[in-house]
Amino acid sequence: MTQEFILETRGLTKEFRGFTAVDDVNLKVQEGHIHALIGPNGAGKTTVFNLLTKFLPPTRGEILYRGKPITRMKANEIARLGLVRSFQISAVFGHMTALENVRVALQRKLGTSFHFWKSERSLDHLNDRAMELLDEVGLAEYADVLTVEMPYGRKRALEVATTLALEPTMMLLDEPTQGMGAEDVDRIVELIRRVSAGRTVLMVEHNLSVVSRLCDRITVLARGAVLAEGDYQEVSRNPQVREAYMGSEAAAEEASA
Prior knowledge:
Layout: E1 5-16, E2 19-25, E3 28-30, E4 34-38, H1 45-52, E5 60-65, E6 68-69, H2 75-81, E7 83-85, H3 98-110, H4 127-136, H5 152-164, E8 170-174, H6 182-195, E9 200-204, H7 208-214, E10 217-222, E11 225-230, H8 232-237, H9 239-244, H10 249-256
């Protein structure tokens, strides 16, 4: 029997010394969808991501991937299952070239992680695949450029390439367009649309324009709990969602309407 939901949480809860950061969250992500997790600052979005990817243990609740419990698995174990995450802050090696960054990620997939002492020649067999991945994210011309010298938006594209190197079934993208200008945002939106083919994407994103353009389904969090869920039209019309966003994105949309 095929699982309709690739990722599911049941009663997911995280408490910190009496403060409930994530409160009984029941999340269902359908396979093949781009699913957004949105909400005002402090809503618990990144904490949910940290729970899903095992950077934090839940206080209560269950996480299932392809119908099987992964609640007690470690971060490296779920990555091997195909559940791979990018981070809110750029997480690439600044003093390596773009090609070298992707090659390191490919080493991880092969089980030869972080063999920095290996000769360049011994890693040459990874170069063709690394170049394919750079080309897929529009970075072929940056192959020999040190990452520290690349524009911010291109660094985020490089993160997508290193994520793809791990051959994910499901990608979790944490604020992929944060801090970008309009041109970089458009580029990343098209990149996510392109690399989502044949994959599932769960993304935390503040930019509601990005969400409206990309996402099949949206879960709105407020104060750690699910406030609403549906497609963009449904959640954008929800009075509770508009109130939660008042003074930020929704208020700006109302002002310009």
